Amino acid sequence: MTQPFWKMHGAGNDFILFDDRAGLFPLANREWMASVAARRTGVGCEGIILLQAASDADFRMRFFNPDGRAAEMCGNGARCAARLAFELGIAPASMTIVTDAGVVHANVNGDAVELSLPDPVDIAPCYDLEVDEHPVSCGSVNTGVPHVMLEVQDLDEAPVATLGATIRHHPHFAPAGTNVNFVRCVDTSHIEIRTYERGVEAETGACGTGAAAAAIVMTLRGRTTPPVTVTTVTGDQLHIGLERQGDSVTSLTLAGPAVHVYMSSIELPA
Known about the structure:
Number of helices: 4
Number of domains: 2
Distance between the termini: 8 Å
């Protein structure tokens, strides 16, 4: 059976999206999903997104990493899903989306989409993590998925591929692992970021929940004052809103572009 799909990206974070309200997508076939996500031999993406029917929201978003494993949440992916859902008539411009990390709200205005994220948990803005018998200064927070943040002075020289992979698999974060963000503070309202993404197992073009996590940690450290603009490795910008309540954070929002690349179709496996 042939199924249409949409290729989209949010600040350089690219996805393949399917309208799966009929429930026909082969969820259990991780091998096939990985082949579709492959860069050289498939369509190529950093995540596969399904728009499914929901009784308690406008729709449900299911997210799968390029290896075919499900993930709880993807901020940029949810923004792309929101734009597509609005354009397909699945949801109004102001909508609710069920994710495995909880219900989120989105507002679509052309190719600009703002997402209200669940209140972050497991916030630890500053601590030392033992890596190869040396302390590494980190911060961490779960913004729907777990993130670690390291502040660096030179983002171009940051060891994203090496140290990022080591921390992603660090026993402290077992068994689920974590995403790892390297951040440079430009000024009190602007940071730059590079992200090693769990599931992608490499550096990603952008990560919405990572941008939010970095803004939270930098704000709690007193390095930034919200709203915070986050420049990704692609040069695109995401905008993070939040309210600090002592050592916690509420009213977390993620805003930025959700862009169509193309529409096509693919043969689903039997």
